[in-house]
Amino acid sequence: MSEIHGAGGPLPPIPDNMTLVQFMLDYRHPSRPTANKSTPWLIEDATGRKIGVDEIRANTQALATGLGSRFNIGTYTNFCIFSPNHIFWPVMIWYTCSHLDVLPSPANPSYTADELVHQLKTTSTKLIFAHPSIYPVALAAARTAGITSERIVLLDALPSTTTGTPTHTTVPQLIAEGKKAGCKFTERKLAPGEARTKLAFLCFSSGTTGLPKISLPPASIAVAISHYSLIANIVQIATYANADPKPCEAKTYRPGDVSIADVYGLVYILHFGLFYGMSIVVVPKFDFVNMLKSIERYRINYAPCVILTRYLQHPEVKKHDLSSLRVIVSGAAPLSGEITEKLSEVLPSVSIAQGFGMTETAVIVAMPRHDKKIGTPGSSGVLIPGTTARVLRPDGTLAARNEPGHLIVTGPSMASGYFKNEKATRETFIDGWVHTGDEVVFNDEGELFVVDRIKELLKVKGFQVAPAELEGFLLDHPDVADVCVVGINDDYHGDLPLAFVVPSAAAQQRIKANPAEAQRIKTALITYVASGKVHYKQLTAGVELIDVIPRNPSGKLLRRFLRDRAREMWKQGKLTSATVKAKL
Question: Boundaries of each AMP-dependent synthetase/ligase domain copy (predicted)?
C-alpha cells in the first residue's frame, strides 16, 4: 500500500507570521466562513450569559494589562491553568499566547496534588490560574513546588464561607484593573516563519503508561506546541469542512450552529468551533442528565461526546427534547459498530460518527466522511487535508489495504518531540513522522479503523487480544454502563483479561435491592463474553464492579490506573483464577 493522503482538496496557505490569538481574533483566512456578528461565541451553561468576540478581545487585552501591573511577568514566566471548562478559558489562553514570553500549561482538573506538582515542576510554572472548586489541590501543589500563594489567581472568588485561607487575586479583578488602566498591553508581531518555532502551549500527552509526556515544537528549548502547528490544524479541519458537497442546511459543520463543550478540547472544540462561527455552550463538568437539559435548553446542534452508550441506557433520554441535535461525534474513546447501529435506532435523525487525533499531532488526524450520515461501523473517518499516513508491518514494510499495522502520520500540525525525554522522542518522532502506537487498518475507501493501542494489546496464549474489542462487546450488554479491560500477566497463558465494569442504572438498582445480585451480574458477563468470543478472548481473570472508570478530561481511558489496581488486587489475593497463578 502506498502512502494515504488526506481528503478534501489542497490546503490554502497557512500563515506563519502570527500568533494563534491574532489568527483567531484579527485575521480573515480564506477557509473561514462568514459568520453572523450577532452570534455569541460562548454561552455560560449555568446562567445563559452570552459572550461575543468583542467582549473576549477586550477581556484578553485587559487581563494582559492587569497581570502586567500586578505581577512581574518576565521572560518564560510560565502559567498553569488548573480548571474545568470556564468562560474565561479563551481569555487566559489567548492572553498567554499573545505574551510571547509566557507559556500556558493546561492541567487536568482531576489531578491530585502530587500529579499537579509533577506538571508544575516539569514546566517551571511561576503562576497558577485555579478554579475555586479545586483550590485546595492547587494550594497544596503550589506549596510543594515552591510557588507562593500570592501567585495563585482564582477564576472566581472563593465562597464567603471559606475561612483561614490566603487572599487571592481573581481573574475578574485583573480584567477590571486592566480596563481601568486603559489596556496598555501591546502585542508583538511575528516575523515571517517565526510562528513555526514560537511556542504557544505546554500540552501534556494523554499517554497510557507512566507519567504524562509533553510535546514540544521544532528547534525549541521549551515544552510546547508551536503557534503554526495549531493554526495549521484549524485550517486543515476548516478546509475539510468546506469540502462538504451537501447543501448548507445538511452540512455537518455550519456557522451559527450551537455546540457543547462538556469535555476539554483545546483545538477542536474551542478553536475550530469559534473559528467556524459556532456558539459553544460551556459546561464546567460532565453530567449526562444535565447535558440532556442543556441540549434541550439551548437547542444544541453539534455534540462532541465520549461515552455515547449513555444515550442507549439512561432512562432520562426519553424525557428530553433532543430534536435540535444534528451531529454526535465521538473522538476520545472507541465507538464500536454495534454501539453505532444501536444509537442510530435511538436517534434516527442524528448523524453519528467518530474521528481520530492525538496531542502529538496537534491534534485532529481523521474526521467523519461527508457522504455518510452514519459512519461506517468502527471507522474513525478519513484523513483530513494535508495529513499523510503509512501503515507499517512489524518488519517496517508498508502494509496493504485491509491489513493491520502500525500507524505513522505526518503533516503541518505535527509536534516534534517530548520535553526532557530524548529516548521517547527518538522512538516516536522519526524523520518528520509521528509513530502513533496505534494498530490500524485502512479499507479500500481510505477509511481509518483503529484496532487498538499496540502497547495495550493483550497477548493470550500467543494470540493478540484488543481490549477495545472486548469493551465494545461488553458495552452492548444491558447491565454495563462503562467498562475497561486490562491484562494480568501469567507465565503460562500470557495476559489474563479482566473487565472493570460500571453497572448500568438498572443493574445498580438490583444490586441495591439484593447485594447477591452483584455476583450474578459478574457471572453473567463472563458467560456473555464466553458465548460470544473465541476461547482466548474470554475474561479469564474475571469481572470487577466499580463506581467509575477513570478517564482524562477528554474522556480517554486512564487504563494504567486500573491495570495497576488489578495487579495489586491479585497480589493481595482479592482476584482469583481457576486455572493459573499470576506472575507479578
Answer: 46-419
In this structure, are residues 196 and 165 in contact, taking their beta carbons and an 8 Å threshold?
no
Give the length of the chain: 584
Residue 543's domain is classified under what CATH number? Answer: 3.30.300.30
Looking from the CA of 350 toward its CB, the CA atoms found within 13 Å total 24
Cell of 522: 459478574
The pTM of the full predicted model, rounded to 2 decimals, is 0.82
Q: What is the pLDDT of residues 216-275, one digit of tens each?
A: 433 222 335 889 999 999 999 999 999 999 998 888 888 888 887 654 467 788 899 999
**Distance separating alpha carbons of residues 304 and 459, to the nearest angstrom:** 33
Using CA atoms, how far apart are residues 342 and 478, in angstroms rounded to an integer? Answer: 12
- CA dihedral sign, ordered 442, 443, 446, 451: negative
Residue 390 lies in a domain: yes
The 3-state DSSP class for residue 90 equals: helix
Q: What is the three-class DSSP state of 94?
A: helix
Q: pLDDT (tens digit, 9 = 90+) per residue, 428-440?
A: 889 999 998 888 9
For 498, list phi and psi in degrees, rounded to 5. Answer: -125, 130
Residue with cell 472566581: 156
Assigned C-alpha cell, 92: 487566559
Query: Coil, strand, or helix at residue 197?
Result: coil
